[in-house]
Design a protein that fits this description.
disordered C terminus; four-stranded mixed beta sheet; five-stranded antiparallel beta sheet; 2 domains; about 25% strand; about 400 residues; alpha+beta; 21 strands
């Protein structure tokens, strides 16, 4: 099993690990048109600052208006910004009602609004509303909070490798049954299996998609000693901000309409290889020398993290954007690294320049690393807050090694 490598000191952390249990599933029938009488996800919290927090949710309709209401009497209202996910699709291997015969785009819209004027350590009720024509769809009322102040006692859920695994919803159910209020969720990569498969994020029929599991909307059945139990996960990220790291399962490979999504995921190439191939075909591919067309072609023929970046609002670094970053949450300094080079060898031998490590001979020679500027995330640590963080957490998605004697 793969786990996130998590370097921790002196934190009260609840660790969720999803175990692999083989199961079989049945498919049902899908409505011809996507539902417009419900939200595709509950809202969840992102990118808190001292006085603000972002609220994000998804629908399968563009809608005519989307907004949040917040405050003790839900008296404040902010219009949401709406964008459409550009790469999410389904195919014949998707666990949805009536899967298509080939890779097919799926229409999903993302809505985001920012609650402002918040006071640290004070929770406030909020609700999201989406309007489609004459129909008004409202979420339940949840609570939000901004960045906690220094010296605040915090409960952090540290988790990784959800990947729709059988035990994920069960473990998340135990979290909410055990802990009264989670303050933040740190997820160290491998959130899903195929990042461009929309249903793995939102509504996979097996009942363990990423967002439902973290929002208490999952529906995963497990059987033990002849007793069947359905687990719904936990209502967590509606109330607690989510911070994530990129794992190899958040990186898609080369775009190819003739391949399945799984085949695309497994078919990545280095950017440099795609650039060299582009140069050979540039006149045919891009006779007008359009720089955007060049950039898109190279990305489509190497790898991308577009869906991950379109879904989440995260702290950003000057060189890596959302892909790697450092931030402070209360007394915790969080560093999220983009540690996987998905096109490389999965081998972990000492001399291998692999997906998750550099070769031993290059460890002291950063110029030979094929990273993405990861070292620069450390350069601005002193600028994040005016006080020194007490704890440091590094989220880095690595592959574990099993002993040959076990």
């Amino acid at each position: 099993m793969k786990i996130g490598k998590l370097i921790l000191t002196n934190l009260v952390i609840f660790i969720l690990i999803a175990f692999v249990i083989p199961m079989t599933f049945a498919l049902g029938k899908q409505p011809k048109n996507p539902p417009t009488d419900s939200l595709l996800s509950d809202p969840f919290l992102q990118a808190p600052t001292e006085n603000t927090v972002n609220i994000v949710w998804f629908t399968e309709f563009a809608g005519t208006e989307h907004y949040i209401k917040y405050g003790q009497k839900l008296e404040q209202q902010v219009i949401a910004k709406t964008t459409k996910l550009s790469r999410v699709r389904e195919d014949q291997q998707s666990y949805i009602n009536t899967p298509p015969n080939q890779s097919t785009p799926r229409n999903i819209w993302r809505h985001e609004a920012i609650a402002t004027g918040l006071i640290p350590n004070q929770r406030v009720p909020y609700q999201v509303v989406s309007i489609e024509g004459k129909q008004k769809i409202s979420s339940k009322v949840f609570t939000l909070a901004s960045q906690p102040s220094a010296n605040s006692a915090l409960k952090i859920l540290l988790t990784s490798d959800h990947q729709l695994m059988p035990m994920t919803t069960a473990n998340l159910s135990q979290v909410v049954n055990t802990i009264d209020q989670i303050d933040a969720v740190f997820c160290a990569g491998d959130l899903v299996n195929i990042p461009d498969r929309a249903s793995e994020w939102f509504d996979d029929l097996r009942g363990g998609a990423f967002f439902p599991s973290l929002q208490g909307r999952g529906n995963y059945e497990l059987e033990h000693d002849g007793i069947k139990t359905i687990y719904h996960g936990g209502e967590i990220i509606q109330h607690a901000p989510l911070f994530t790291a990129l794992g190899n399962h958040e990186v898609m490979g080369r775009l190819d309409a003739n391949n399945t999504l799984k085949q695309e995921f497994a078919n990545s190439k280095p950017r440099q290889v795609a650039k060299e191939f582009y140069q050979q075909l540039a006149f045919e591919i891009n006779p007008t020398n359009d720089p955007q067309l060049e950039q898109d072609w190279i990305k489509n023929n190497s790898f991308n993290t577009d869906t991950y970046e379109e879904i989440f609002s995260l702290p950003q670094s000057s060189t890596g954007g959302k892909r790697y970053y450092a931030t402070t949450f209360g007394d915790i300094h969080l560093i999220s690294l983009y540690a996987t080079n998905i096109w490389r060898s999965p081998g972990m031998e000492a001399e291998t320049q692999g997906r998750y490590k550099e070769s031993v001979k290059d460890l002291n020679n950063p110029n030979m690393w094929a990273g993405d500027g990861k070292e620069s995330v450390y350069q601005d640590l002193s600028k994040l807050r005016i006080y020194k963080p007490i704890w440091k957490v590094i989220l880095e998605r690595l592959k574990s090694i099993s002993s040959k004697n076990k």
